[in-house]
Amino acid sequence: QLRESNRRYDQLVTNMPGMVYRIRRNVEKQAYYEYVSPRCKDLTGIEPKELLANATLLIDQILPEDRDRYDALVQENLKEPQLFRWEGEVIVNGERRWRLVESRPYQLDDGSMVWDGILSDITDAKRSEEALRESEERYRAMIEEQTELISRYTPDTRMTFVNEALCRQVGRARDSLIGQSILTDTPVEYHAEILE
Hints:
Elements lengths: L1 H13 L4 E7 L5 E6 L3 H5 L3 H6 L2 H4 L4 H16 L4 E9 L2 E13 L5 E9 L1 H23 L5 E3 L5 E4 L1 H7 L3 H4 L13 H5 L1
Antiparallel strand pairs: 1-2, 1-5, 3-4, 4-5, 6-7
């Protein structure tokens, strides 16, 4: 019956987008995985049995520039157990990927600590964020290079964006214009046209 229960649990977590895991740190301060779900190989390139035998395999995938931050979070979590959340870059099968690790700790009766968590590959989301950021930067650069006066404002005429050409035209810094009504520095004869 226990074997059947474990099989059903494995089927359930296989359908999850991340790798479910349980890691234990015993009273001798040794850390090891007690459980990793079948998605382990898909997300990490590591066979579950290899990870169960050597917990450092996942840590070794972290890029050096992200490793110090990861280690600091682990040490902080060991001193004061709380929700653990880390995201950073890793190398999986020779490819740079983004990983999110989230877990919740609790202490067992024997004094050891257990973290139940999920490891997710967030590479696609990060790439989408980066593409959006680059697109916004290109758009902003294009707007700034325009010689026409460009502004964005709310229905109540408060400016939320002005380009450099507009700043030059009115002889004011951008910060002094944002939040101000577009009508303030606009000749009265143009107010009706703006408000249409």
